[in-house]
Design goal:
Elements: E1 33-38, H1 40-43, H2 53-68, E2 72-77, H3 80-103, H4 119-139, E3 145-150, H5 153-156, H6 158-173, E4 177-182, H7 207-217, E5 222-227, E6 247-248, H8 269-281, E7 285-290, H9 300-305, E8 312-314, H10 324-340, H11 343-359, H12 361-378, H13 383-389, H14 393-409, E9 417-424, E10 427-435, E11 438-443, H15 449-460, E12 463-468, H16 473-487, E13 496-498, H17 505-508, E14 517-521, H18 524-533, E15 547-551, H19 557-569, E16 578-584, H20 591-602, E17 606-609, H21 611-615, E18 635-641, H22 644-654, E19 659-663, H23 667-676, E20 681-684, E21 703-705, E22 713-715, E23 721-728, E24 748-749
Parallel strand pairs: 1-2, 1-5, 2-4, 3-4, 5-7, 6-8, 11-12, 11-14, 12-13, 15-16, 15-19, 16-18, 17-18, 19-20
Antiparallel strand pairs: 7-8, 9-10, 9-24, 10-23, 21-22
Helix pairs in contact: 3-4, 7-8, 11-14, 11-15, 11-16, 12-16, 14-15, 19-20
Main location: mitochondrion
Keywords: Amino-acid biosynthesis, ATP-binding, Kinase, Mitochondrion, Multifunctional enzyme, NADP, Nucleotide-binding, Oxidoreductase, Proline biosynthesis, Transferase
GO molecular function, one term: glutamate 5-kinase activity
Length: about 750
């Protein structure tokens, strides 16, 4: 017997062998048999008279989709009373209007009163209509539905119980969706504390307990309880400090304060939680979620089954470490402490991390070797990603040098005064740099990204959440351990957090109350997915690195092959590698053109011909499928243009605003290119590979941004800062500056304090 909220109830019914519920949301996609419970607030309209037809149609569509995937779906529905109330009100109004029209004329119609309608009568009038509606909706998806009405007595009588169980199993076997409801037309009022009467099951007092009872009886994998709130909160929703509980564990009841019950229906959230815990301990996983929100109700059921972070998931398995929400809060608190340190202390942390990268080189490379071996054995990574995953002594040395550059340049990054203004006498205004807050950096196959980004976050005083790919798990683990070791010298270990839980990237992107900026580092597909998933959180980065090199008619023969080779072949997997080579038409069939082709062949670069280039050739290489292709390998596209203007137009049409280069000795042509190409980085006679925070002298970068707001190009410390305004006055009020006031605005610019350039 389990006691909670002064209502004891048995945790496992005698009729069912104890099963095992899913431990993590990600496992819900394996659910075969699913019960969807639709609360009264979900099914009915806001006026409680009639059904929310659009919402109901969306739910039927989702259930049908899952049923057609081969799952066994059951619905426990409310709504008969509301539907019946609508029908009976209509009938009463109609009969009253006829009588009053006959006896006293139309003038008294407005004074007609609707009598209070008895719930059982409403249920009797509404059951057939509700079922007819479900049948009509499911028919649109070639699915048959069947109605089952039950009462508490059906579960107490062993024969009736067996009959019900057999009926449901037979319906599921025939691919029919059972639609179950309490028979509210005849059901007696629930007896108080009937669970105490020695019955070895939870009492069916409302549709919450009915759904839980059925889920366990039918050995269901998942019970989805849809209500009019997002899930379970630690205090009544709407209160100032209420927080949605992502995962609820048995034993956490004491941390929850329940509010009033739903606007309609028999049970409130306390009844739902009690039913959910009973079902959970009977072996059925449970999610309580919002089925009324217009933005999510159209996909709430399918999202839950896909394992997305929707509503409250009930689990019996507590994770070993903190949740990602707790990690984000720890990162924010740690970041604020970090920002309050002296600049020298933040620099000391970064210098210590740089030393650890070289001192612990062997351990880092050993962990990286494990990642490489696992990736190769599973065959899960393409060659470009394997190259990004690999660490080496030279990479670690370069990382350490970059970190020391960050430490040296970070002395006055936080709290630097950008503007000083004398607003009026003794009223001074300052604009100063401050950290953005909490950064979420998501990266694939790039363990070297972890210390780089950590150092930039430390230098700028930001809290940091890191989500690395599982292919680099061993490398990320040791690099994060070293980062926290460095942070510990000034007691700010929690400022940088590595997310190790099974959080999906899409779920992380929904933490808009906890995360201030998302920075994706990885494939163009990853960046696009994050930009699509992020709701209310800005994303800094670029979705593609389609970089161009334009060879002008006045290009130097010596420079062309060197720059093209370096841009394409030095590290083809990089986002700043050459992808499209633009050649001026006059260079075709010249010795310079032949040298370019020969060099690419020697370097084993596969060439794809653009449409115009292919038209000049009798036997051309394979024609490019798209001029907007990021190859990320020893491949590139060659296209022909007639002028520098056409080269600029091509870059604007097919490029990604990342990095574009002109090779020419004509200064006027070069300046035209530099001024007119609208990309984050535009170079003259230099490799695209210079587009990098380390090579720019920023020490490192959190990424390269192609957006036009806040930061563009390689983003270092400056890009991770924002500003705030400090106003220092002495009893100043705005009314003193009115037309007849005693003070006047001065708005005088004041000199800035001297920067620390040491």
């Amino acid at each position: 017997i389990r006691c909670w909220s002064n209502i004891p109830f048995l945790t496992v019914p005698l009729s069912r062998a104890h099963g095992k519920s899913f431990a993590h949301r990600s496992e819900l996609k394996h659910a075969k048999r699913i019960v969807v419970k639709l609360g009264s607030a979900v099914v009915t309209r806001g006026d409680e008279c009639g059904l929310a037809l659009g919402r109901l149609a969306s739910i039927v569509e989702q259930v049908s989709m899952l049923q057609n995937q081969g799952r066994e779906m059951m619905i426990v529905t409310s709504g008969a009373v509301a539907f019946g109330k609508q029908r009976l009100r209509h009938e009463i109004l109609l009969s009253q209007s006829v009588r009053q029209a006959l006896h006293s004329g139309q003038s008294q119609l407005k004074d007609m009163a609707i009598p209070v309608l008895e719930a059982r009568a409403c249920a009797a009038a509404g059951q057939s209509g509700l079922m007819a509606l479900y049948e009509a909706m499911f028919t649109q998806y070639s699915i048959c539905a069947a109605q089952i009405l039950v009462t508490n007595l059906d579960f107490h009588d062993e024969q009736k119980r067996r009959n019900l169980n057999g009926t449901l199993h037979e319906l599921l076997r025939m691919n029919i969706v059972p639609i179950i409801n309490t028979n509210d037309a005849v059901v007696p009022p629930p007896e108080p504390n009937s669970d105490l009467q020695g019955v070895n099951v939870i009492s069916v007092k409302d549709n919450d307990s009915l759904a839980a009872r059925l889920a366990v009886e039918m050995k269901t994998d998942l019970l989805i309880v849809l209500s009019d709130v997002e899930g379970l909160f630690d205090s009544p929703p709407g209160s100032d400090d209420a927080k949605l509980i992502d995962i609820f564990y048995p034993g956490d009841q004491q941390s929850v304060t329940f509010g009033t019950k739903s606007r309609v229906g028999m049970g409130g959230m306390e009844a739902k939680v009690k039913a959910a815990l009973w079902a959970l301990q009977g072996g059925t996983s449970v999610v309580i979620a919002n089925g009324t929100h217009p933005k999510i109700s159209g996909h709430v059921i399918t999202d839950i089954v896909e394992g997305k972070k929707v509503g409250t998931f009930f689990s019996e398995v507590k994770p070993a470490g903190p949740t990602v929400e707790q990690q984000a809060e720890m990162a924010r608190a740690g970041g604020r402490t970090l920002a309050a340190l002296q600049p020298e202390q933040r620099a000391e942390i970064i210098y210590r991390l740089a030393d650890l990268l070289t001192d612990q080189r062997e351990e880092i490379l050993l962990a990286n070797k494990k990642d490489l071996e696992e990736a190769e054995n599973k065959g899960r990574l393409a060659l470009p990603l394997l190259k990004r995953l690999s660490l080496s002594t030279s990479k670690l040395n370069s990382l350490a040098i970059g970190l020391r550059q960050i430490a040296a340049s970070s002395q006055d990054s936080v709290g630097r005064v950008l503007r000083r203004t004398r607003i009026a006498k003794a009223l001074h205004l300052e604009q100063v740099t401050v950290p953005i807050g909490v950064l979420l950096v998501i990266f694939e196959s790039r363990p070297d990204c972890l210390p780089q980004v950590s150092a930039l976050a430390i230098a700028s005083g930001n809290g940091l959440l890191l989500k690395g790919g599982k292919e680099a798990a061993h490398s990320n683990q040791i690099l994060h351990h070293l980062t926290q070791e460095a942070l510990s010298i000034h007691g700010v270990k929690d400022a940088v957090q590595l997310v190790n839980t099974r959080e999906e990237v899409e779920d992380l992107c929904r933490l808009d109350k906890l995360i201030d900026l998302i920075i994706p580092r990885g494939s163009s597909q990853l960046v696009r997915n994050i930009q699509k998933a992020a709701k209310g959180i800005p994303v800094m980065g670029h979705s593609e690195g389609i970089c161009h090199v334009y060879v002008d008619t006045d290009a130097s023969v010596e420079k062309v092959t060197r720059i093209i080779r370096d841009s394409k072949c030095e590290y083809p997997a990089a986002c700043n590698a050459l992808e499209t080579l633009l050649i001026h038409r006059d260079l075709l069939r010249t010795p310079l053109f032949d040298q370019i082709i020969d060099m690419l062949r020697v370097e084993q670069v596969k060439i794809h011909a653009g449409p115009k280039f292919a038209s000049y050739l009798t036997f051309s290489p394979s024609e490019v499928k798209s001029l907007r292709t990021e190859y990320g390998d020893l491949e590139c596209c060659i296209e022909v243009v007639d002028s520098v203007q056409e080269a600029v137009e091509h870059i604007h049409k097919y490029g990604s605003s990342h990095t574009d280069v002109i090779i020419t000795e004509n200064e006027q042509t070069a300046e035209f290119f530099l001024q007119h190409v609208d990309s984050a980085c535009v170079f003259w006679n230099a490799s695209t590979r210079f587009s990098d925070g380390y090579r720019f002298g920023l020490g490192a970068e959190v990424g390269i941004s192609t957006s036009r707001i806040h930061a563009r190009g390689p983003v270092g410390i400056e890009g991770l800062l924002t500003t705030k305004w400090l106003l220092r006055g002495d009893n100043h009020v705005v009314s003193d500056f009115s037309e007849h006031g005693s003070m006047k605005y001065l708005h005088e610019s004041l000199p800035l304090p001297q920067r620390n350039t040491s």
